[in-house]
Amino acid sequence: MENPRQLAFQTLRGVLRDQSYSNLSIAGALRSNDLSGADKSFYTGLVYGVLERKVTLDYELSLYLRQPLRKLDPKVYTALLLGAFQVLFLDRVPDHAAINETVKLVKKNGAAYGAGLCNAVLRKVSENGLQLPELRERPEEDARSLSDEQALYYSVKYAVPVPLLSLWTEAYGLEKTEGILADALGPRPLTVRVNTTKTTAGDLLARLAEEGVSAEPHEKVENALVLKEPGDLAELPSFREGLFHVQDAASQLCCENLDARPGQVVLDLCAAPGGKSCTLAEHMENSGVVRAFDLHENRVELIRENASRLGLSCVEAAVGDATVYDPEIGPADRVLADVPCAGFGDIGRKPEIRFRDPAFVDDLPPLQYNILNNAVRYLRPGGRLVYSTCSLNPAENEAVVERFLSDHPDCTLLFQKTYFPQEYRCDGFFNAVIEKAGET
């Protein structure tokens, strides 16, 4: 069993080297190491914190190094990131302790030659505190473009690469972009959906209180609760009894927008792990059928497991390819196409996503259009379709919908909306609600 700092060092080395998902790496490390509750929290906070603040940490470290960061030994670099994060952003860790533990890390991991460098650099970081680039001229709040100086300032301040900062500023303006970025650096809400086929929001609040979990209703979403420090949810009797499932508020709003009703046939074309399928079944009072599809059998099994725990017998999960029309599936009253996307709305939960180059998404809109174009073929006349992504990117959102509507004059856009985290206490999300002409 490793101590939390050593485990964080190992996890970060792997994530930075292999560009792997931090949440999966953290889950694997926790399964393999028997940490106390406090150590789990400290370890997780270190890994997520370093990844969230990496752009800022890189800038701070570069101020005190004679060589570029890329020329540092990866072990020394990882240790410096951990040490600088603790010094600058963890008030509960004394600076001297963060520095001493960082020196121990490089020695323990075969990089003792870097101990002196780590000690000297981190002492400078401690002495000078957080340093931001110079900003001689502030842009207007609704600015849609930034000078190089302005871009560097906001990039370091909010720990976001310049390409993503520029994308959002151009699309949404600087004021809204600052709101997205500030929210992403804060603690993420843990939101759950009440299983309304078994209980009510009020009764679940009381039950959770009996189990020692503090919760409150979400201010924007009916039957959504925000939990505070719940611990291991799988250990709660209310969870095991299927009284709720974890689901972000934006996903719950997506299900509301589909307006699924009892007795209908509903398709969820990209369904795993099944959260939306289950919420739709609850909207339908477990009457009718929700046909939930995913490409891989192991992920389809996750849908079945979630529906079974919640007691939602109307969910039917099966392997299916959302890009290929299957005449055996339709027709349906409602279709949800929650398509694969860049995930830029998810940077608060998966901090490494911020390092994706927005140019890499160029291959996604054709795939997304293909799925949407296929989805409407399953829809009955008069039926409703929701196209959704967890990406804040007009190329994946409004542009795909615009292309679809130009090719489908029999479809009407009822509304489309971007859900911004700072406004809806949720992950960033996009919904387009489309109706097919005719009568059901």
Q: Roughly what percent helix? A: 40-55%
Unreliable segments (pLDDT under 50, ≥5 consecutive)? none
Distance between the termini: 60 Å
Helix-strand sequence? HHHHHHHHHHEHEEHEHEHEHEEHEHEHE
The class by helix and strand makeup works out as: alpha/beta
Radius of gyration: 24 Å
Number of helices: 18
- Shape category: globular
Average pLDDT level:
94
Strand content: 15-25%
Biggest sheet, spatial arrangement of strands: 7-6-5-8-9-11-10
Number of strands: 11
How would you describe what is shown here?
The protein has 440 residues and is α/β, with parallel strands linked by helices. Helices cover 46% and strands 15% of the residues. Strands 7-6-5-8-9-11-10 form a seven-stranded mixed sheet, sandwiched between helices. Strands 2-3-1-4 form a four-stranded antiparallel sheet, with helices on one face. Helix 1 (4-18) packs antiparallel against helix 2, helix 1 (4-18) packs parallel to helix 3 and helix 16 crosses helix 17. The longest helix has 16 residues, at 37-52.
Structure characteristics:
four-stranded antiparallel beta sheet, 440 residues, alpha/beta
Summarize, please.
The protein has 440 residues and is α/β, with parallel strands linked by helices. It has helices at residues 4-18, 22-32, 37-52, 54-62, 74-89, 95-108, 115-128, 148-158, 162-172, 174-184, 201-210, 237-240, 249-258, 275-283, 297-310, 364-375, 398-407, 421-424, and strands spanning 190-194, 214-217, 224-228, 244-246, 265-268, 289-294, 315-319, 332-338, 379-389, 411-419, 429-436. The protein contains 18 helices and 11 strands.
